[in-house]
């Protein structure tokens, strides 16, 4: 069902302007037509995934404002993937939410057919597993890191966001997404040529902190054009983690590469719609 939806979506035109169509023959691109279509497919699918997380964390009817976010939904899926079955007690502890919020979260996940409840606990459905698999492609690794010049709070949590350097402006948007979660903030780094730098700069910010540089390289395994988002908070490691996740999901939701592409059905070309 999801594959059919992706194919339908690929027939839709995404563009920012109607000016200057530039056609590219897919067979001449590196990797060929299938790899390019796969990239477009993945890019569009991740936006479907983010929309699903947003739907789960939205009110379905007039009610009190929900206390959980897409970041909570993502961590719930991570916990289920790790434990296979989870209890409400575990979710209360790991998400730092009340029992009422966890009950609503589970209800919304079931409405989206993301989970199945059994006598053993809550586990992922086939749809939930596919959603989680896609998210894990873009956010494959994460770890707690110590306080430093770039992780200034008591609790700091780093997340790898693969191949998203072009989606980062100055890192302010990621910081704001973390603050909205209630955390102190977030630091965004770009990995390029073996170095970690802040957006808009080539300066290696970890030049004098080799132990942290090694920790990030070994723990996250970044490559060129990857992004590292560090959530920080003075009161809670879980909040620092959720802040980093919120900033990463914000970046995935708002990167616009796929909006400039139009797949022409039954033809070996992609049309780029650019501003003139």
Automatic annotation (TrEMBL):
GO terms for cellular component: cytoplasm. It comes from the Archaea. GO terms for molecular function: aminoacyl-tRNA ligase activity; ATP binding. Keywords: ATP-binding, Ligase, Nucleotide-binding, Protein biosynthesis. This is DUF4443 domain-containing protein. It comes from Candidatus Nitrosocosmicus franklandianus. InterPro entries: DUF4443, GAD-like_sf, WH-like_DNA-bd_sf, WH_DNA-bd_sf. It holds the Pfam family DUF4443. The keyword Metal-binding does not apply.
């Amino acid at each position: 069902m999801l594959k059919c939806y992706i194919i339908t979506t690929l027939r839709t035109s995404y563009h920012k302007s109607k000016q200057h169509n530039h056609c590219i023959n897919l067979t001449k691109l590196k990797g060929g037509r299938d790899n390019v279509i796969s990239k477009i497919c993945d890019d569009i699918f991740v936006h479907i995934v983010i929309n699903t997380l947003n739907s789960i964390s939205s009110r379905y009817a007039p009610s009190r404002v929900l206390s959980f976010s897409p970041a909570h939904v993502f961590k719930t899926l991570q916990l289920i993937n790790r434990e296979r079955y989870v209890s409400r007690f575990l979710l209360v502890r790991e998400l730092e939410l009340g029992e009422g919020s966890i009950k609503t979260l589970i209800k919304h996940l079931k409405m989206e057919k993301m989970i199945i409840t059994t006598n053993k606990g809550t586990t992922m459905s086939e749809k939930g597993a596919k959603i989680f698999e896609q998210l894990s492609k873009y956010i494959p690794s994460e770890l707690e890191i110590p306080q430093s010049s770039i992780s200034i709070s008591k609790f700091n949590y780093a997340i790898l966001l693969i191949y998203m350097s072009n989606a980062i402006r100055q890192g302010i948007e990621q910081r704001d997404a973390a603050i909205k979660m209630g955390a102190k903030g977030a630091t965004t780094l770009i990995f390029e040529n073996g170095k970690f730098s802040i957006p808009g700069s080539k300066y290696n910010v970890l030049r004098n902190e080799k132990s942290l540089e090694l920790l990030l390289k070994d723990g996250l395994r970044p490559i060129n054009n990857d992004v590292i988002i560090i959530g920080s908070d003075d009161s809670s490691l879980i909040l620092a983690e959720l802040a980093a996740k919120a900033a990463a999901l914000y970046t995935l939701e708002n990167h616009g590469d796929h909006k400039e592409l139009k797949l022409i059905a039954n033809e070996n070309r992609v049309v780029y719609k650019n501003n003139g």
